[in-house]
Amino acid sequence: MNRPIHCALRLTTLLLAGWVQAVAAQPLQLPGAQPFNAPGAQQAAPSSGLPAAPRQPSMPTIKVAGEDAVIGRTLRHNGGPGEAVFEKTATGFGLKLTADGFQADNLLEPCAVSFGPAPVPVTSLGRPAGVPRYRLEASICPIVFDVLDGAFLVVEPAQPCIVEAAACRIDPRGLWGPDARTLAPQAKELERARGAAERAVREGYRTLTAKADPVEQRTIAREQAGFSAERELVCRDFQREGQFGFCALRLTEARAASIRARLGLASEPAKAAAKPRPRQAQPKPGPLQLTPQ
Prior knowledge:
The protein has helices at about 5-25, 185-210, 215-235, 240-245, 245-265, and strands at about 75, 85-90, 90-105, 105-115, 120-125, 135, 145-150, 150-155, 160-165, 170, 175.
């Protein structure tokens, strides 16, 4: 055999043998298998098989106004007619109220009913919807309302009241808030607050859904969709609502407070725990000194 050809064949044989040894040193990997980790390489810890710890209820913190947010303020029905003043009394709280309405036999002719010159006592009903709720103790038209920030929402009676002595039909339901003509300077502030309240409600419903079973999830979804329609119905009569959105803001904040109450979350930001005061260093004893006798 020609010597150059012989040398070439021998070199090829040696190269093939080295390649076979290198391949044999690597573990066989099948398609879809996890990649091999060389000794010393960091490996993922094996799963314990236990379910992940449930997430704690999460929702943006909102501030829920108390009675101080309405005391002494003149509030108007839908930002226009009517007048209500929530006052502190010797025994609790009371409400001075003049309700707007229409004549019982002519619903085009306006009228008004005063509940008296002195505040009518109100009874606290707790916070069933996450905000303070009160009942006005008036026989001519018992009213239940929720206290909001600079406003209150009348949730009862279910139907308008007929005040026979005044031949007037009053319907106090809806939002009682500031005169709508005074809201212009607060326009930007109201817009920012609406965004925050909307986010709080969305996160709240998301958290409620995550904690619920499939049947409850469908109920929550219907409630979430119904809230928008309910808010539109309540706020459509509030003056200048399309311009400032005051009514929608207060109802959205109230819904966020209600959701937080259902989740067992506080509506007020928790106060920071007081930091322990640093202990003062004790003076080190000096060297022992002997007094000569």
